């Protein structure tokens, strides 16, 4: 990751609104699940907080749940980046952690690569490409990224120079914003897991 000598903006990570699978805590990677009614309302609620922003760059996952969230939040014409898709859960797609642990007690995504899916190192490499793209744009202003829970957590820890596994310590709800940036020229997490009602107090 490249160091930034004169940072000019913030990194805003916006997780998509709720889907039926996120509501039921199912691993949702490459499956293109749409927002449910609650998720659409969550995205609309975000519009008051982020719709008036003028970021230097808006990046978005190609998945419907992310694109629709961006649209309802008032983020028009985002740049679609295939690197922003969620972790590929392989054979564990559509299953909950509780179901997986019936066969593999104590399993977590962070410590056990899903069979047929992506390894943590592969996901970390994708996140590093995204972070490099952000670093190239953030000197011009804020960068806003619309995407997914696990992958946003990996972006966050890679932004501050930690290994992907450390994402396990950063819980993230649907339709929330996390604000990353700089503190005394060091990359930092400034605000985490903010719901729509709280976003206006920090943006």
SSE blueprint:
Layout: E1 11-15, H1 20-23, H2 37-50, E2 57-60, H3 64-72, E3 79-80, H4 97-103, H5 120-137, E4 143-147, H6 149-159, E5 177-183, E6 186-194, H7 196-199
Parallel strand pairs: 1-4, 2-3, 2-4
Antiparallel strand pairs: 1-5, 5-6
Helix pairs in contact: 2-3, 5-6
Low-confidence stretches: 1-6
The biggest beta sheet reads: 6 strands, mixed
**Number of DSSP E strands:** 6
- Overall mean confidence score, pLDDT: 94
What is the approximate shape?
Answer: globular
State the order of secondary-structure elements, H for helix, E for strand: EHHEHEHHEHEEH
Main structural class: alpha/beta
Percentage of residues in helical conformation: 25-40%
Radius of gyration: 16 Å
As laid out across the biggest beta sheet, the strand order is 3-2-4-1-5-6
- Calculate the terminal CA-CA distance, rounded to whole Å: 26 Å
Number of helices: 7
How much β-strand is present in the residues?
15-25%
């Amino acid at each position: 990751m490249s160091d930034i000598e004169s940072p000019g903006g913030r990194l805003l990570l916006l997780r998509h609104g709720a889907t039926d699978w996120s509501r039921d805590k199912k691993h949702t990677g490459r499956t293109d699940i749409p927002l449910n009614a609650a998720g659409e309302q969550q995205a609309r609620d975000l519009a008051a907080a982020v719709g008036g922003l003028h970021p230097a760059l808006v990046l978005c996952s190609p998945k419907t749940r992310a694109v629709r969230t961006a649209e309802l939040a008032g983020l028009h014409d985002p740049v679609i980046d295939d690197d922003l898709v969620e972790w590929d859960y392989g054979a564990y797609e559509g299953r909950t952690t509780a179901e997986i642990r019936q066969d593999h007690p104590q399993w977590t995504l962070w410590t056990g690569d899903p069979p047929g899916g992506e390894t943590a190192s592969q996901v970390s490499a994708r996140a590093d490409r995204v972070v490099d793209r952000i670093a190239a744009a953030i000197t011009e202003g804020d960068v806003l990224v619309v995407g997914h829970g696990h992958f946003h957590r990996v972006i966050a820890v890679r932004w501050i120079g930690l290994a992907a596994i450390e994402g396990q310590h950063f819980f993230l709800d649907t339709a929330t914003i996390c604000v990353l940036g700089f503190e005394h020229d060091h990359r930092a997490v400034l605000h985490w897991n903010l719901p729509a009602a709280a976003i206006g107090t920090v943006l």
